[in-house]
Amino acid sequence: MPITADELKLVARTVRTLSMDIVQKANSGHPGMPLGCADIASVLWTKIMNYNSDDLSWVNRDRFILSAGHGSALLYSMLHLSGSGMTIDDLKNFRQMGSLTPGHPEFGHTPGVETTTGPLGQGFANGVGMAIAEKLLAEEFGDVIDHYIYSIGGDGCMMEGVTSEASSLAGHMKLGNLIYIYDSNRITIEGSTDLAFTENVKMRYESYGWHVQEIDGHNFSEIESSILEAQRVKDKPSLIIANTIIAKGSACMEGSEESHGAPFGDKEIKASKEKLGCSGDAHFDVPDDVYAIFKKVKDEKKKIYDSWQAKFSSSIKGELKDKWNTFFSKPDIEKLRKSLPVFETGSKIATRAAGGKVLEVLYKELPNFIGGSADLAPSNKTMVKNISESGAGKVGRILHYGVRENAMGSIQNGIAYYGGFINFSATFFVFMDYMRPAVRLAALSGLQSIYVFTHDSIFVGEDGPTHQPVEHLAVSRAIPNLNVIRPCDAEETVEAWVSALERQDGPTMIALSRQNLPVIERTDKSSAKNLAKGGYTIYDCDSPDLVILSTGSEIQLSIEAAKRLQSEKGIKARVVSLPCWELFDKQSESYKKEILGTGSKRVVIEAGIRMGWEKYAGENALFITIDEFGRSAPESDLAEHFGFTPEKVCERILKYMA
Ligand SMILES: Cc1ncc(C[n+]2csc(CCOP(=O)(O)OP(=O)(O)O)c2C)c(N)n1
Ligand SMILES: [Mg+2]
Questions:
Q1: Is residue 319 part of a domain?
Q2: At what angle do helices 436-445 and 405-418 cross, to 10 degrees?
Q3: Same domain? 465 vs 347
Q4: Of the N and C termini of the chain, which has fewer Cβ atoms inside 10 Å?
């Protein structure tokens, strides 16, 4: 029995009363958007989306992204009504410590929440990543994968630059599985969009190559028919501009920016409920009829789910099943190790080039390994031959993001949210600034987004300070739950990748050099495998007079300086490679003490700002760091100017020791 218009009306009314109550009880939150989008959400959850509320991780479910994350009360209401495990008590605990209903949706925290949203625009960009993942998975496994990615975003999402970048790429790639609904209420926090947003969104999206429709977002049949039309358009992503009224259904708040981000107050809520034909005194009330409607919806959707399961069993078997399992399980690292490159001690290779050699193996050995650069692949060394590439109207395992770092970070998170793939992005380290919002969200959401950031210091050289990161290591290390790895040579680069592959519950950043670096001479004790511990002694001596702490390209310099101090001055120095602070911090106190030594003399050598190093070296250490912007000059002149030569380093250490 199809859902009738009266039933939809009842569902939407319940979404409205619930959303008002949720925000009121918390005494904080955003009621305007949920009321304005209640009609759209009711259609989506009852008539459009395929899902199984008893199996929220079903691979072929339609994805729903609330890009306007402030409207979380809407999503939580839908998760309750659809029987996805959210209870009325959860709704009553909106925005409270430890509840399943935080202020903005958090992936990994609340079952049924597909992406962490709140920073506007992110959700729309995440969806593009999901759409890419869906298409790639369908290419591998056929039509057992054939679903849509739906999202609702508001004026704010439409204004954000990240949305523009992502939408431009989605149009180019013809991601027909994307169906975005723009909650065009023409209201943002400061008032009417006339204040700051008067462009023609329809024309803009048409020029991106999208299929665009405009509807009355409160008319059930227009909502449904526009979505069905969007589904039929296979070769273009779809935007449905839904003209809505913020706070629709409320007594006095309709169309007002005041409804955006504050509870209505008891009086307005009572009046609104009465206007909607409900009791003004009932709170968190869900009529039995509404539960009955969702029972009916669930039964219908279960049939679709069951027939999909049958199709899956009959089509994904034998070798295809094995392949499927490689997509959805952790890679066998020990097996992979047999194929990973080894490098000759003393030979010189830039860590970005070593990273490129690793990528060749990963692309070959792991069918679910994908990624790409923001138009810097030749410099990042991320191009691999004979691997499918994305382009106009097609997806590929090598993604050409174009010059769109901002969207790249968020699209890559979308791929990670989706699951089944291991994915990386690449650019110059200095341009990570353009993707910081996404890096932060990957860390917050525990996503395996991997970053290949090359040209990791002033030793970029002639391109000058615009292209020379100095504060970027510190900025990255400041982000909780992000592993920042700066390998010192090719061997550590291999181990950095191993670490990134092992880590499935958070992002890993690999900072790589432009310039050639020698492959360091190692003993069993100083094996690069120690990178897994974050830090280790790479050059040792008995009872050292001082300990040098360093990373990346400055390790060779540190070892060279240590050798000179010993041979010329009889000063004994140990060099500690600390490629990943976050991993080192997880080691036992005794291990850390053993590595850092107990003496009072410590030297830090890193071509970046000093910030943070005090934690390992103490305040009284010598800091050979770069606490200003670099210069446009050849690498050797920069080393001379900033004191990163063995002579200058030894000079400063001698002064410090005295
Ligand atoms: C990147 C970012 N900037 C600013 C905000 C703060 N903010 C939250 S909602 C909002 C206005 C959103 O307007 P719209 O999307 O039209 O939502 P509506 O008021 O219609 O619900 C702003 C500026 C944010 N969440 N994210
Ligand atoms: Mg708005």
A1: no
A2: 20
A3: yes
A4: C
Q: Which residue of 23, 70, 163 sits with most ligand 1 atoms within 8 Å of its CB, as the best mutation to test the pocket?
A: 70
Q: How many CB atoms lie within 10 A of CB 134?
A: 26
Give catalytic status of residue 405 as yes or no.
Answer: yes
Ligand 1 pocket residue status of 119, Cβ below 6 Å? yes
The predicted-structure confidence for 185-235, as pLDDT tens digits, reads as follows 999 999 999 999 999 999 999 999 999 999 999 999 999 999 999 999 999
Of ligand 1's listed atoms, the one at least distance from the Cα of 121 is: 1
Which ligand 1 atom lies nearest to the CA of residue 32?
A: 21
pLDDT at 1 over 80: no
List 106, 268, 405, 554, catalytic entry: 405
Q: What is the pLDDT of residues 566-595, one digit of tens each?
A: 999 999 999 999 999 999 999 999 999 999
Q: Which residues contact 476 (CB under 8 A, 6 or more apart)?
A: 432, 439, 482, 484, 509, 511
Tell me which residue has tokens 């991601």: 175
CATH classification of the domain holding 237: 3.40.50.970
The pTM of the full predicted model, rounded to 2 decimals, is 0.98
Whether residue 552 has its Cβ less than 6 Å from ligand 1: no
pLDDT digits (tens, 9 = 90+) for 376-404: 999 999 999 999 999 999 999 999 999 99
- Among 140, 257, 254, which residue's Cα sits nearest to residue 193? 257
Last residue of a domain, one of 454, 488, 518: 518
Q: Which atom of ligand 1 is nearest to the CA of 118?
A: 25
Q: For ligand 1, is residue 68 a contact (CB within 6 Å)? A: yes
